[in-house]
């Protein structure tokens, strides 16, 4: 059972990044998928969530209109397209899989740094 994030890095303000999270070892299509982020000294913050079928999506107010979550159940992958990045978006980004009555699954995180 594994989630592996990729796509993080250093980007200038106003730039874009696309994060990917590849799932293995479980039935990906039955899990809602989320992206969280965390900065030192702060609690982990929910950024975006997409239901198992992809029919319901919600975003944190801080990223609405700039970030887009999507999933490809055939590829067992969830994505986070991040546009118009701001320095305050700097954080470690984690993906998470959730299904009622099952243990949550977390990835190891990928660093996103927005700086000039």
Structure characterization notes:
With 116 residues, the chain is mainly beta. Helix content is 0%, strand content 51%. Strands 2, 4, 5, 6, 9, 10 and 11 form a seven-stranded mixed sheet that branches. A four-stranded antiparallel sheet has the order 1-3-8-7, with no helix packed on it. A hairpin with a 4-residue loop joins strand 7 (67-72) and strand 8 (77-82). The chain starts with a strand and ends with a strand.
The overall pLDDT, averaged over residues, is: 97
Helices, by number, come to: 0
Termini separation: 37 Å
- Poorly predicted spans: none
Q: Sheet with the most strands?
A: 7 strands, mixed
For this entry, what is the oligomeric state of its chains?
single chain
| C-alpha geometry | globular
- Helices and strands: which structural class? mainly beta
Give the helix proportion (percent range): under 10%
What is the H-and-E element order? EEEEEEEEEEE
Q: Tally the beta strands.
A: 11
β-strand percent reads: over 45%
